[in-house]
Amino acid sequence: MDRGNVVFNAGPVDITLEYRELMPDQGLCVQVFGKVDDNDVEILRFDCFDQTPHYHYGPANHNIRLNMDKTTVGNPFGWTMDNLRSKLPALIKRSGYDALAAAVEAEPVPAATFDEVEAKGRQMAVSMRRTVAHKFERMLEDDVFTVGNLRIGLEYRILPQANTEGLAIHVLSDVADQNVELLAFDCFVNGPHYHYGPRNQDIRIYWDTTTSGETLRWTLDQFYAGNMKKMIDRAGYPTIANDVDENLLQATMPDIEKRALELVEENRGRDDDPKAALLKEIETLRERVAAL
C-alpha cells in the first residue's frame, strides 16, 4: 500500500497517517515505513476503522493480519499509539525485520514525535470523517409517515449527474432537537445502495441485485420482517431503536408500501420533468457512444 500523505520522521523509521474511506467502513490508517536493502518498505499498518479495525505485521513481507477487538482494546487509534510507544521494536521484529528493530532499539523514537503523531491523528479522525446529509429536495410533507418516534419519508430521487434515479426511503428521528436521518435506502436503477447512520458512521452498502432481487421490495421486506430496530441499532442509535413501536410500524407498513409503489409508478415514463428528460438524453447518448 502507498504511503500515507502525512509523514513524521522517527529516526530509522517514518510514521505516516492517512484517512481511508471505504464504502462500508472508514477510519485512520497508521503506517510504519523503514529502509530494507535501500528500499522504502511498509513494515506495519494499523487500519483503525469503525467497523473492522485490524492491523498487519509485514504487509510487504508475510502480511500477518489480525483484528482489533473494540470491546477489549477500546479506541483503535489510541490502542495503536499505546503499542507504538511501548512495543515498536518488538512489532517490527515480528514483521520480519530484525535489523530494523535493532536500529529502533538503538535510536528510540522521541516521545515528542509520538505526541505529534497522536495529536495530528486525532484531529484527522474528526475533521475528515465522511458523512452524508441528504437534502430531501423532492420529499413532500404528505409522503412522510410518523410512526411513534420515527418518521419514514418517501422521495423519488433523480440524479442526472450519476445517470440514475429511483425511490429513496429515509428513516428519521429527533436527535438533540435535530431532524436526523438514521437510515437511508436509495433504491436506484444504477448503483442502488443503503446507509446505516448517514450522519454518523455512514456505513454504505451496495446491493448485489443478483442475490437481493428488486431493491425496493427487499427494503420493504426488511421492515415487515421486524429488522428496523436492529438496523437503527447498527446505525449507532440504540436508544431510538429501543423505543421503536413495532406494532405501530407493522400497522403503518401497508400505507407506506402503497405510497412507495405509487411514487415509482408516477415517475415511470414521465415526459414533463426536465430532469427526467435530461436523464433520458444522457442514456441515449451513452448508448450511441457504446455502439460506435
Would you give an account of this structure?
The model has no long low-confidence stretch (mean pLDDT 93). This protein has 10 helices and 12 strands. The strands form 2 sheets. It has a 6-stranded antiparallel β-sheet with strand order 1-2-3-4-5-6, covered by helices on one side. It has a 6-stranded antiparallel β-sheet with strand order 7-8-9-10-11-12. The longest helix is centred in the C-terminal third of the chain and has 22 residues, at 246-267. The chain has helices spanning 70-73, 76-94, 98-106, 111-127, 209-212, 215-224, 228-234, 238-242, 246-267, 274-291; strands at residues 6-10, 13-21, 26-36, 39-49, 54-57, 64-67, 144-147, 150-159, 164-175, 178-188, 193-196, 203-206. α2 (76-94) crosses α3 and α2 crosses α4. With 292 residues, the protein is α+β, with helices and mostly antiparallel strands.
